Amino acid sequence: MTLLVLAHGFRRLLPPYGNGPVEDEEADEEERWAAMPMGPLVEMPFGLPGRVFGSPMPFGQFDWQHRVLDAYREEGVSVVVVLASEEECRERSGRDLLALYRKEGLTVIALPTEDFGVPPVEALMEAVDAALAHARAGRHVAVHCWAGLGRTGMFLATLAHRALGLAAPEAIAWVRGHIPGAVQTLAQEDRVAQAGKRWGQVPDVNTR
Questions:
Q1: pTM over 0.70
Q2: In DSSP terms, which residues pair with 54 in a beta bridge?
Q3: Tens digits of per-residue pLDDT, 122-177?
Q4: Domain coverage including residue 167
Q5: For residue 181, how many other CB atoms are within 10 A of its CB?
Q6: Does some domain include residue 18?
Q7: CA distance 62 to 17
Q8: Which CATH number does the domain housing residue 167 bear?
Q9: Torsion angle in degrees (nearest 10) through CA of 51, 54, 59, 61
């Protein structure tokens, strides 16, 4: 049986287990995450024909049970947005993830971005539009960086602006409502707003 439960503030598809978040305020973020019973996916309710998920990096520290890739298969994910570089993926997961995804038959949207960093605004906009086109065509999309918070949250917030017509602050708040702690830096918040300004604050919602 699979339940949708709250773990560390995340809506995750999990089997019914786990004791909830670590409450030690002295623990740093990695310690808190490492102690969590991690689920593989966070589903974001965009209401598009295709479903959209956030996740930690498969086989990385925050996928300590190595369940993320299996969850992609189980949920029918066919498109993966990768926000880490190939080098970071190899270092964090011990695998060539992009090659593995392509071997699995997945479409890869690569937007390599430094941890806690931001991509060029034009590249972010292009990747968001590509992911949105796939979701509108009924394909299920997964987005990941390393932990699934900063870069992933930034991408999902930009997608929320584009697909749902939310202004940048509301888009960020919407994502944090499902993934508390998402969008981790001011630069990431600013990048969401910059993308909105480049689009002229006109969301692309007409063909949802």
A1: yes
A2: 42, 143
A3: 999 999 999 999 999 999 999 999 999 999 999 999 999 999 999 999 999 999 99
A4: 39-200
A5: 17
A6: no
A7: 17
A8: 3.90.190.10
A9: -160
